[in-house]
Automatic annotation (TrEMBL), chain A:
Gene3D superfamilies: Leucine-rich Repeat Variant. It comes from Camelus ferus. Keywords: Membrane, Transmembrane. The gene is TMCO6. The keyword Cytoplasm does not apply. This is Transmembrane and coiled-coil domain-containing protein 6 isoform X2. InterPro entries: ARM-like, ARM-type_fold, Armadillo.
From TrEMBL, chain B:
Gene3D superfamilies: Classic Zinc Finger. InterPro entries: ZNF511, Znf_C2H2_type. It comes from Camelus ferus (Wild bactrian camel). SMART domains: ZnF_C2H2. Signal peptide: none annotated. This is Zinc finger protein 511 isoform X3. It comes from the Eukaryota. Residues 82-105, 109-130, 146-169 form the C2H2-type domain. The lineage of its organism: Eukaryota, Metazoa, Chordata, Craniata, Vertebrata.
Length: 492, 240
């Protein structure tokens, strides 16, 4: 089934209300960052000693202390002593002031890199952890101080020690988002082939870390021109799709990362035809079915983290012309996809309403040009549940009405199946909305119903439809359509 | 949102597409002042439609979302010793042993006992240091392969290769895994030559393919504060 690795997190010592408050603040900051197109996040992999974890406060170290620890690590006679020195340094580096002191100290990075490449395995590991702390800093000067280590971090990706590789990957991932300057170094150093070699690792922890690093690379501003083409030219896409195939080996943490990787590739529109020929549509379609099944079975936290990128990938891929060119096996025609989507919409309504528009976007792309999928919605009795979403928000309402229009515009056979039922009452409700887009879309649907469904006009008149229209007579964007409908209603 | 009970059964049922109802459009549909046309929509990267989902994704990355309690990975076990001949490291955690093993015992050259971070570097080392055929071929053609995976360039000398690594791949000039062999004749299997590169000063007369290492080490090293002049490269375990 779905296995999930536990995240390594320090147990928090603050209360629930504080958590919520912190989360709201973080969310606001992230929204702002996104609007400014500066949305970057670093991942911190901290392996806290659970005994020391509660209430641990990082100690600020000064340059002299740092130098002492470094010297001890390099030259100490006792191995345990050398390790301890690095552990102390690492703990200190959790504090931004220690980080600043560290980079001010001449030769400090050089020493750290020396320890990173030494033959003492445990010193190597601790040195890597120190680097990781530095890479996580929000100060560019601190993160960029790690640059001399990157060629080694990449070399170690071809090794075999899974803990170490995981650490190197998270460190690289953090450095990648730091700046374009960093990426301009990493790309010629061969990061793409290094990741491609590493993706064959059997270790889930390594794969999740790799997915993270790759997603950061693909999210870069210059990715469509400078990064995605070489990623598409490497074996990475095939492996990514393999890791997204549903089955007993599917791991949620790993899948989330690679689904986001795929999303960044696909929405950049570099060469989606290639992904389609690799079977991306069918893999993602099957994954969607699997997700819907999982959602019914468990209260598992985090399924929406995977659902979101999968929906986006499918929606965007469906718009590619290449879809028509591939064989039926590679296309998306299975009506179970519609069933899965509705199960997910219900799940979103309860757990994450902000994802409803994304789900409805997929529904639009499935139904727009497909009589078959439109028929499925009718035969599976999904119109009523769809209409139940009309009161959630304006954006959702517009999308719901658009999907119903997709069905209605296919002609009388379809409209007949939409009638009678809750459709007319729902439409009369939406006509009472003040949002012009919602009302506009309702008017479009009404025109189609008047055109294709005998009896629709009478029913509309009987239920005081004309009054509902009246209130919009003066609205600029709506008046022409309102008048046209009034005419049709009154004169047939 | 009430879903019809048969829906779950359909999900679990066989794949298949619905036989479509007949499509029959009236040309008046969607004409002025109406404008509806069924069409697929595509959103590019930075579109604001993605804002909510992107924010959730980043909250997850920042680990605020799913507060999974810290788990006790790293269970301690009774102390045990590394079983590789000649190694007496002691461990009390399996992950520590795993890293030790992979770093020191996994990719080891059977000729000179040096350990390498990856199979790729080990293979290159064996070829360049312990294969007499390589030396012969290297006299006539470009045999020194670039160390970056995916780069297929080959070079006449290891110095040329280093040059390429620095200028093309932005590698540091003192990259620890690219020390050319100090050749004193054809490759000989046997114990490690513990060359202290810094102990030997000055240039050497360029011979077949190498001997530039000393120059590189000296010229590229910035002056170190006295506490830092440590020659940790000279355990010699991770040279090529």
């Amino acid at each position: 089934m779905w296995s999930r690795r536990q995240r390594r997190l320090r147990p928090l010592s603050c209360g629930v209300e504080e958590l919520r408050c912190r989360r709201r603040e973080r969310e606001a900051a992230l929204r702002k960052a996104r609007r400014e197109q500066q949305l970057v996040s670093k991942r911190l992999l901290r392996d806290e000693d659970p005994e020391k974890a509660e209430g641990y406060v990082a100690v600020i170290l000064g340059e002299a202390e740092i130098q002492q620890f470094l010297r001890l690590a390099q030259r100490g006679t006792e191995e345990k002593e050398r390790e301890k020195a690095l552990v102390s340094l690492r703990r200190g580096l959790q504090h931004p002031e220690t980080q600043q002191a560290f980079i001010r100290l001449e030769g400090s990075i050089r020493t750290l890199v020396g320890l990173l490449t030494s033959n003492q395995a445990l010193l190597q590991l601790e040195a890597a952890r120190c680097l990781h702390e530095l890479s996580h800093s929000e100060q560019s000067t601190v993160a960029e101080a790690c640059l001399p280590a990157t060629s080694y971090l990449l070399t170690y990706l071809s090794g075999h020690s899974s803990d170490f590789i995981e650490l190197c990957l998270y460190t690289l991932g953090n450095l990648i988002v730091e700046s374009e300057a960093v990426r301009r170094q990493l790309l010629p150093q061969g990061i793409v082939p290094a990741l491609a070699a590493c993706i064959q690792s059997p270790h889930l922890t390594v794969l999740e870390a790799l997915g993270y690093a790759l997603s950061q690379l693909l999210q870069a501003k210059e990715a469509p021109e400078k990064i995605i083409p070489s990623v598409l030219g490497s074996p990475l896409p095939q492996h990514m799709l393999q890791l997204l195939q549903p089955g007993p080996k599917l791991n949620l943490g790993v899948a989330v990362e690679f689904a986001w990787c795929l999303h960044y590739i696909i929405c950049s529109q570099v060469n989606n035809a290639l992904l389609i020929t690799h079977g991306a549509l069918s893999t993602l379609g099957l994954l969607l079915l699997d997700l819907a099944g999982a959602v019914q079975r468990t209260e598992d936290a985090g399924l929406e983290l995977l659902a979101c990128p999968v929906l986006r990938c499918l929606s965007n891929l469906l718009t590619e012309a290449a879809v028509e060119a591939v064989g039926e096996q590679m296309q998306l025609r299975d009506e179970r996809v519609v069933a899965a989507l509705f199960i997910l919409l219900q799940f979103f309504l309860q757990k994450q309403p902000s994802l409803l528009p994304e789900g409805l976007w997929l529904l639009n792309n499935l139904t727009a040009n497909s009589p078959s999928f439109c028929t499925s919605l009718l035969s599976l009795d999904l119109i009523e549940p769809l209409l139940q979403l009309l009161s959630v928000s304006n954006v959702v309402s517009v999308l719901v009405l658009t999907v119903v229009c997709n069905i209605a515009e296919k002609g009388p056979a379809y409209c007949q199946r939409l009638w009678p039922g809750p459709l007319l009452p729902s439409l009369l409700d939406t006509l009472a909305f003040s949002d012009t887009e919602v009302v506009g879309q309702s008017l479009e649907l009404l025109q189609l119903l008047f055109l294709y469904q005998p009896g629709a006009v009478q029913a509309f008149l009987q239920q005081s439809g004309l009054q509902a229209l009246q209130r919009h007579e003066e609205v600029a964007q709506l008046q022409d359509r309102v008048r046209a409908l009034q005419q049709t209603a009154q004169h047939g | 949102m009430q879903l019809p009970p048969a829906l779950h059964a359909r999900l679990a049922g066989a794949p298949g597409e619905a036989e479509p109802l007949p499509v029959e459009r009236d040309p008046a549909a969607g004409t002025t002042p109406f404008r509806f046309a069924a069409r697929q929509v595509r959103f590019p990267r930075e579109h604001e439609f993605f804002e909510d989902g992107d924010v959730q994704r980043h909250l997850y990355l920042q680990d605020v979302l799913t507060q999974v309690a810290g788990d006790p990975e790293r269970p301690r076990v009774p102390e045990f010793t590394c079983q590789v001949a000649g190694c007496c490291q002691v461990f009390d955690a399996l992950e520590d042993f795993e890293h030790h093993y992979h770093t020191l015992h996994r990719n080891v050259c059977s000729f000179c006992k040096r350990a390498f971070p990856s199979g790729h570097l080990l293979d290159t080392h064996i070829l360049e240091w312990h294969d007499s055929l390589f030396q012969i071929l290297a006299e006539r053609q470009d045999m020194y392969q670039c160390l970056v995976e995916g780069c297929t360039e080959k070079f006449r000398t290891s110095r040329d290769r280093k040059e390429h690594l620095v200028t093309r791949h932005l590698y540091p000039a003192d990259f620890r895994f690219d020390k050319p062999r100090k050749s004193k004749g054809p490759a000989t299997p046997g114990p490690a030559v513990q060359v202290s590169a810094e102990a030997l000063g000055g240039d050497q007369v360029p011979s077949e393919g190498d001997a530039m290492e000393v120059c590189f080490e000296h010229t590229e090293l910035p002056p170190e504060p006295s506490g830092e002049r440590r020659t940790y490269g000279h355990r010699c375990i991770t040279r090529i």
